């Protein structure tokens, strides 16, 4: 007796004075559902076999069958049924005898999680009726034959997304008979950009194919003068990726009942993509040492990262902004939210969100790295997700900025967004979430300020056009670049731009006006700076040009400071100092060349081969200072990829990757990675070393699974050289 009593005690839920049932945020956990639910005492002669009984349920869940075809889910490498919400799908039920509508009564039940409840959308009973209403749960019989019936089932256009368990219940006079738990009938329900009633509805078919169904993309990097691109494999349809994405929501402890809302999903996902809170997916590292992990530049796609996290439950090392954005994009597209990866060139990381980045100069006019806390990232990647914003006034739906890179906290956690792009453009930064921070990333001004001995600050120069010069994403249906700067801001200097700025200031963005500081710039001399395009390991030259528009002769004491920087604009070390006096004749231009030798920069080069030049010139006659800064990126050699053999689905082929070491040194600890969604899973290979000028060749055999145009992506990582990529488009034929 005591044993059974104690085991009953254990089964009871822990008491909690505040809520009747515990929080329900695991899609994986289940409750036990009774096969016979009696209404009272069962008479002795009752035999469940005398009643209608379900023998089998057929789900039409193969990729070539009607459900996955009509719901655009045929690419998911997953044996279970996957459908999109707000759209009908079909199942067939086989009974032990023909179904008699006059006397037989049955219904379907979809359940999710450990504590299914009808008012939370985690227990959904569906009675068979005569008509299906669009966007509401319902079922109707569309075909009857012998002992079977075929049902068309409509799901709600607002239902929660995730994995549901399916039961069929039959009513008898003495109780309810249910089918057994059968995981083969589990049904995944996803967002539906094809359904007008869904919050993520997107009306252009080409855009849906790009932003939901394309499993490879392009990351734009480099800098504004020298845009570089590389491919990234999103792999949202690969095996186990869907389950890994659902696990992220469990990890973020998002209540199951909130999982129909794309705003909530984006908000919690932007926090769980990084490991700064609650041990999220990727650990960021920006310090060029990546012990016990993978260098951010070596990843070729999201699948390895998500699957490693799903199995280990520990943050994967390491990522930088494009890695966070690439994985976030996979998560969004996998769940059916249209998404794209964005690059903002010259992105402001403004530590106090006052719309100004302060670069402090010392007495000589050189930048004081001790005092300067703000930084300009050569580029920064984030994502945009497409959805309606019923929580904001009309007109702010559409693309929303979401950012998984941990930069600043928002409501106590490292996350950012969703934030309406339209609100950023018009300066309506009062609308949630994190609009002031995103507005500053694309709109800040750079102030060059001199600290006088007595502590006063003198503004020497203001650059209003450097930040957010170019904002881009991959074009729809191609690998080219689409300029979307105008989505975020009006043309520099236009009336609308000033108005948007005034609106942002009115809504509480802090902006110090120039009137607050003493500022009289030198207007009759202009200074410009250009760097020659150069290949890694070679010398190159930079040119400083002055235009003296006045009738006076001037002399300018000029400082050039060359720094090796992380792409975040943070300096590792100054490798070049050069100062000279320039004579500026009236009404004329004069140029000065400075040579940068490879021996000056090679020893300390960081992985993206980024330099940052500050040039400051003091006009001796007036004491005024001119300042300009510019990032420049070296050309890094690429990997060559080719194929051998027939390119046919199901047949063996070879992929050959080649690389020639261009440096005047041996490359140590070389790792190659190769992947291609639908062609091969990621393969890694370690090579000890590549001597200078020698060529490495690596051949991989694989059997492509999916026909169509696919992409192969490779990366090389070593101690001295990273960010080396190659790619190849291959057309895989049908067998």
Automatic annotation (TrEMBL):
The active site is at residues 321, 380, 403. Gene3D superfamilies: Immunoglobulins, Transglutaminase-like. Its EC number is 2.3.2.13. Transmembrane segments: none annotated. Binds 1 Ca(2+) ion per subunit. One of its GO terms (cellular component) is extracellular region. Residues 1-30 are annotated as: Disordered. Keywords: Acetylation, Acyltransferase, Blood coagulation, Calcium, Cytoplasm, Hemostasis, Metal-binding, Secreted, Transferase, Zymogen. It catalyses: L-glutaminyl-[protein] + L-lysyl-[protein] = [protein]-L-lysyl-N(6)-5-L-glutamyl-[protein] + NH4(+). Its main location: cytoplasm. Ca(2+) binds at residues 443, 445, 492, 497. It is found in: Cytoplasm; Secreted. InterPro entries: Ig-like_fold, Ig_E-set, Papain-like_cys_pep_sf, Transglutaminase, Transglutaminase-like, Transglutaminase-like_sf, Transglutaminase_animal, Transglutaminase_AS. One of its GO terms (molecular function) is metal ion binding. Its cofactor is Ca(2+). Factor XIII is activated by thrombin and calcium ion to a transglutaminase that catalyzes the formation of gamma-glutamyl-epsilon-lysine cross-links between fibrin chains, thus stabilizing the fibrin clot. Also cross-link alpha-2-plasmin inhibitor, or fibronectin, to the alpha chains of fibrin. This is Coagulation factor XIII A chain. It comes from Rhipidura dahli. The gene is F13a1.
């Amino acid at each position: 007796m005591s044993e059974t009593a104690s085991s009953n005690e254990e089964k009871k839920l822990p008491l909690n004075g505040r809520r009747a049932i515990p929080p329900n945020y695991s899609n994986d956990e289940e409750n036990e559902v009774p096969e016979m639910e009696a209404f009272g005492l069962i008479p002795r002669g009752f035999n469940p076999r005398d009643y209608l009984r379900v023998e089998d349920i057929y789900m039409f869940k193969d990729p070539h069958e009607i459900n996955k075809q009509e719901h655009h889910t045929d690419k998911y490498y997953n044996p279970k049924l996957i459908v999109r919400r707000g759209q009908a799908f079909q199942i067939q039920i086989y009974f032990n005898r023909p179904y008699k509508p006059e006397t037989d009564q049955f219904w379907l039940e979809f359940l999710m999680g450990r504590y299914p409840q009808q008012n939370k959308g985690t227990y959904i009973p569906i009675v068979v009726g005569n008509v299906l209403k669009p966007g509401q749960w319902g079922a109707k019989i569309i075909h009857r034959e012998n002992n079977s019936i075929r049902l068309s089932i409509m799901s709600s256009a607002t239902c929660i997304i995730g994995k549901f368990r399916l039961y069929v219940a039959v009513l008898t006079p003495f109780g309810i008979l249910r089918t057994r738990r059968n995981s083969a009938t589990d049904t995944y329900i996803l967002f539906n950009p094809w359904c007008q009633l869904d919050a993520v509805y997107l009306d252009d078919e080409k855009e849906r194919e790009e932003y939901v169904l394309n499993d490879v993309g392009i990351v734009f990097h480099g800098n504004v003068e020298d845009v570089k691109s590389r491919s990234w494999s999103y792999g949202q349809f690969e095996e186990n990726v869907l389950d890994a994405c659902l696990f992220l929501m469990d990890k973020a402890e998002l209540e199951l009942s909130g999982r129909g809302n794309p705003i909530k999903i984006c908000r919690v996902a932007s926090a769980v993509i990084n490991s700064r809170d609650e041990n999220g997916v990727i650990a960021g590292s920006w310090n060029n040492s990546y012990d016990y992990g993978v260098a951010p530049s070596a990843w070729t796609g999201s699948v390895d990262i998500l699957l490693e996290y799903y199995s280990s439950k520990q943050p994967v090392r390491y990522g930088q902004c494009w890695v966070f954005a690439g994985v976030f994009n996979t998560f969004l597209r996998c769940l059916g939210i249209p998404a794209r990866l964005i690059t903002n060139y010259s992105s402001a990381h403004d530590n106090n969100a006052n719309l100004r980045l302060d670069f402090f100069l010392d007495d000589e006019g050189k930048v004081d790295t001790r005092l300067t806390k703000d930084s300009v990232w050569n580029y920064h990647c984030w994502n945009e997700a497409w959805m309606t914003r019923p929580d904001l006034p009309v007109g702010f739906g559409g693309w929303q900025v979401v950012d998984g890179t941990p930069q600043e906290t928002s409501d106590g956690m490292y996350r950012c967004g969703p934030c309406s792009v339209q609100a950023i453009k018009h300066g309506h930064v009062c609308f949630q979430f994190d609009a002031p921070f995103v507005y500053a990333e694309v709109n800040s001004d750079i102030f060059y300020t001199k600290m006088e001995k007595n502590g006063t600050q003198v503004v020497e120069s203001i650059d209003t056009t450097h930040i957010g010069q170019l904002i881009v994403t991959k074009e729809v249906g191609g690998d080219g670049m689409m300029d979307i700067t105008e989505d975020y801001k009006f043309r520099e200097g236009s009336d609308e731009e000033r108005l948007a700025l005034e609106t942002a200031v009115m809504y509480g963005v802090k902006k110090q006006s120039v009137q607050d500081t003493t500022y009289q710039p030198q207007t009759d001399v202009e200074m410009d700076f250009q760097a020659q395009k150069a290949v890694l390991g070679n010398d190159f030259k930079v040119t400083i040009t002055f235009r003296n528009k006045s009738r006076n002769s001037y002399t300018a004491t000029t400082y050039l400071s060359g720094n090796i920087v992380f792409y975040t604009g943070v300096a590792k070390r100054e490798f070049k100092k050069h100062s000279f006096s320039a004579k500026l004749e009236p009404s004329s231009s004069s140029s000065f060349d400075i040579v940068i030798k490879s021996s000056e920069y090679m020893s300390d080069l960081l992985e993206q081969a980024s330099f940052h030049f500050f040039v400051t010139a003091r006009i001796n006659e007036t004491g005024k200072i001119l300042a300009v800064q510019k990032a420049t990126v070296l050309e890094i050699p690429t990997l060559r990829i080719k194929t051998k053999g027939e390119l046919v689905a199901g047949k063996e082929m070879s992929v050959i990757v080649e690389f020639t070491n261009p440096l005047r040194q041996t490359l140590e600890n070389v790792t190659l990675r190769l992947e291609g969604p639908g062609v091969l899973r990621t393969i890694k290979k370690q090579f000890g070393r590549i001597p200078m000028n020698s060529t490495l060749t690596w051949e991989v055999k694989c059997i492509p699974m999916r026909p169509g145009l696919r992409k192969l992506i490779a990366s090389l990582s070593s101690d001295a050289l990273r960010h080396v990529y190659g790619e190849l488009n291959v057309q895989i034929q049908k067998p």
